[in-house]
Design a protein that fits this description.
The complex is a heterodimer.
Chain A (H helix, E strand, L loop, with lengths): L1 H20 L2 E4 L3 H19 L3 E4 L5 H11 L6 E5 H9 L8 H4 L9 H5 L9 E13 L26 E4 L5 H7 L8 H5 L2 H14 L3 E4 L4 H8 L4 E5 H10 L4 E16 L6 H14 L2 H7 L6 E2 L32 E3 L2 H20 L1
Parallel strand pairs in A: 1-2, 1-3, 5-6, 5-7, 8-10
Antiparallel strand pairs in A: 3-8, 4-7, 4-8, 4-9
Helix pairs in contact in A: 2-13, 4-14, 7-9
Chain B lengths: L8 H6 L1 H7 L11 H17 L2 H9 L5 H12 L10 H8 L6 H9 L7 H6 L2 E4 L2 E4 L7 H32 L2 H16 L2 H12 L4 H9 L14 H24 L4 H9 L4 H29 L3 H6 L7 H10 L4 H25 L9
Antiparallel strand pairs in B: 1-2
Chain lengths: 364, 368
């Protein structure tokens, strides 16, 4: 009897150790962003559970790769970090697991259920929001031709007389079309209704035509910071966290222009087609990594706003520089005076069509 | 992957009953019958359980914007339906989304119900398959033919530039004594062994407006500080960077062929009274043709499918068709269109290869 118990205990120990040792592959964007996740989520999780986490930096192509893995019947990723629009597509294609936010995720410390804590940011049933980031502008502060003026309005991007010089814009219609319409006199609330019409689209392209010859088009988030640092462009759009590191961590003569910044979301999905054990392990990780404190912790390392309402008051100082992170968040009141909310579902519908037109326009 | 360019089973697989019922729909000036909507409800109920309805939505969205959300929205309602008796489904669908009452949408569904479609290939050559037949795409959406032309034009140009620069270099190396020839060969191979990305980025540093070349030109006074030359993020940048990167592929086959041409032939030609030019044109060059052919084919075929260099330094005027293929495979997920574009590219290369074989003869090619 006694030996049996010991044997059983031993077997179960060995068993639990093998399970605990199973590694997880987490896919994200690399660079400073993955670093912030490693420090805020992965390391504490490994310390707590013993599960090793392997980072894979292929989030930019996550949708295509997940579809290929799914068709091949061999999904090698456990948790994937994607932007909101990709989460919608993955959910649409049946490639991401539907999440019951209230039962599978931690409630806020005051007991508010997760679905309320995240609120509208849950843009797809498969999506667990993590951060709010924004696409916004940075500009150089040492441009002589500007005569001491600084751009403070989104339409200054389209004003080559007052603010001459090259600009960098993202090589896709999203955001650029909206900004062009805003500066063609369309009210913020009507932007997507107007963009749905042929006339609205031509209006946006006409506005972009005004600056087309002065634009360098970027496709990687690191392009604009590099172009600004080299002086290749005088202003350019990119993700706010990239500009934060350019300005605060690398001390470049660049400032933020927050006007008409476009909020976007980034968060987690779990791929479908995992074995039940792996799926449970992924859910356990998400429960841990998306609670109120963890989300607030991530903001110590990068200037993106936590997606939970309950995390906002907990945002503290930068882990190395010791500066308050609050004022650098896209959601800080001073920065969020004029924001533009990106319409995920609209773009899911019109992306294919507008993308064809966009590329034809670019090539002209 | 080639099969994907015509494959279209998703419609008939997801909505089998609806498609069958829809085939009886003759008069397409009025909405389909109630029976079709009833079948649609039954098909969608199953599709929602398997989560395939949204997949079909994204497929049809390539043809008509807005269908993706119609399917997503409808799926949410259909999930709660109890489909056992036949009640007024037409009305129920119309209440969810008025697109279900759009005749154009039903015509489209019927048009794309066969298991194979020419839609992707038509799209790849700027045509569109509509219910009224095949027509040219709107001018604001035409891009692929233009990109194919540009890809071929730039590849030919890059090949010629490589030949122009590679020929003298290969000639020089083949005529030098072994010791100095080896040193020069290493100079040719050294960049060849350097990462493609590093070489491309190096061109960025050199050619950008605040870059080395512009700085020198401004310093010398050839261009003003305010109108620095635009040397990158355009066609020029792509041509310069790709010519540099592909040059070894031209030099090496040329060199290996030239090495086998005996010097005595040219000497003999000269002793018989030919001048430098004639002896080169009539005696030396014809013997180097196999190398020229091999080098040109290598460089041309490599450059026609080039992707990373145009993506980094091409801006908008220097990108290739491969950049669009990569976009459709990795980002827009329109794999059918990507496959159709890639198939056309493959066929184009094969045709050019055939033409080359007819004119110069592939047996004449020598790689070493």
């Amino acid at each position: 009897m006694k030996t049996n118990t010991i044997l059983l205990a031993l077997v179960s120990m060995v068993f639990s150790v093998t399970i605990a040792k199973a590694d997880m592959t987490i896919v994200s964007w690399g660079g400073a962003y993955t670093k912030s996740q490693t420090l805020a989520y992965h390391e504490p999780y490994t310390a707590k559970t013993g599960i090793k986490i392997i980072n894979d930096d292929s989030a930019a192509e996550a949708v295509a790769k997940l579809r290929a893995m799914n068709e091949a019947g061999n999904v090698t990723w456990d948790v994937v970090d994607v932007v909101g629009s990709d989460a919608i597509r993955l959910c649409d294609e049946g490639l991401a697991l539907e999440i019951d936010h209230d039962n599978q995720l931690a409630a806020a410390p005051d007991g508010t259920p997760a679905s309320e804590d995240f609120g509208d940011l849950i843009v797809a049933d498969c999506f667990v929001p993590q951060i709010v980031y924004s696409t916004t502008f940075g500009f150089r502060t040492d441009v002589d031709q500007w005569g001491g003026k600084e751009p403070d309005d989104i339409c200054d991007v389209f004003d080559l007389n007052a603010f001459p010089g090259k600009r960098s814009l993202e090589k896709r219609p999203i955001n650029n079309m909206e900004w062009a319409l805003l500066c063609s006199g369309v009210a913020k609330a009507d932007v997507y209704d107007v963009l749905e019409t042929e006339e609205g689209q031509s209006m946006a392209f006409a506005k972009l035509d005004e600056i087309k010859d002065s634009v360098i088009w970027w496709s990687a988030g690191a392009d604009t910071p590099q172009l600004l640092a080299d002086g290749e462009v005088v202003m350019g759009s990119t993700y706010n966290g990239r500009l934060f590191s350019l300005i605060v961590e690398q001390n470049q003569p660049v400032k933020m222009m927050w006007d008409a910044q476009v909020y976007d979301l980034d968060g987690w999905i779990i791929p479908t087609g995992l074995s039940p054990e792996r799926q449970q392990a992924a859910l356990d990780y998400l429960y841990f990594a998306t609670d109120t404190q963890r989300l607030a912790d991530q903001a110590k390392y990068i200037s993106y706003g936590p997606a939970r309402a309950s995390s906002a008051p907990l945002v503290g100082k930068h882990a190395e520089l010791g500066i308050e992170m609050g004022p650098h968040m896209p959601t800080a009141p001073d920065n969020a005076k004029n924001i533009f909310v990106y319409n995920f579902t609209w773009w899911a519908d019109y992306r294919d069509d507008l993308d064809a037109k966009w590329n034809a326009w670019l090539a002209k | 992957m080639l099969f994907r360019s015509v494959e279209n089973q998703i419609v008939s697989r997801t909505l089998p009953g609806t498609i069958e019922e829809l085939s009886k729909w003759d008069d397409d000036s009025v909405l389909p019958s109630e029976q079709v909507y009833y079948q649609l409800a039954k098909d969608l109920k199953i599709a929602v359980e398997n989560k395939t309805h949204t997949r079909l939505g994204s497929r049809l969205n390539y043809e008509m914007s807005g269908i993706a959300s119609t399917f997503r929205k409808t799926g949410r309602s259909v999930k709660k339906w109890d489909i056992d008796q036949q009640i007024n489904y037409k009305e129920k669908f119309l209440n969810i989304d008025k697109k279900w009452g759009n005749i154009e949408f039903w015509r489209l569904l019927k048009l794309y119900s066969p298991k194979v479609t020419s839609g992707y290939f038509l799209n790849a050559v700027d045509l569109i398959k509509t219910t009224e037949g095949i027509s040219q795409r709107d001018e604001t959406e035409r891009i692929y033919l233009f990109l194919f032309q540009r890809t071929i034009y730039m590849s030919v140009l890059i090949t010629l530039l490589c030949l122009l620069m590679g020929y003298p270099v290969a000639y020089l190396i083949s005529r030098l004594p072994m010791k100095s020839a080896n040193l020069l060969l290493i100079f040719v191979l050294l960049p060849f062994w350097t990462s493609l990305l590093v070489r491309t980025s190096a061109w960025k540093v050199l050619l950008q407006q605040e870059g080395v070349i512009n700085d020198i030109l401004v310093f010398v006074g050839l261009v003003g500080d305010l109108d620095r030359l635009q040397l990158i993020n355009n066609q020029f940048g792509t041509i310069v960077a790709m010519t540099h990167i592909l040059l070894p592929f031209m030099i090496l086959p040329l060199y290996s062929v030239m090495k086998t041409i005996p010097e005595s032939y040219v000497k003999a030609a000269k002793s018989l009274g030919a001048n430098e030019w004639t002896s080169f044109r009539r005696v030396y060059f014809p013997q180097s043709i196999p190398g020229v052919g091999a080098g040109c084919i290598l460089v041309f075929i490599l450059s026609i499918g080039y992707y990373i260099t145009p993506e980094i330094v091409g801006g908008t005027s220097g990108t290739f068709i491969s950049n669009r293929i990569a976009y459709h495979i990795s980002y827009s997920l329109n794999w059918g269109l990507g496959a159709a574009l890639a198939s056309i590219l493959l066929v184009a290369v094969l045709i050019l290869y055939y033409v080359y074989d007819k004119i110069i003869g592939i047996d004449n090619v020598k790689l070493g």
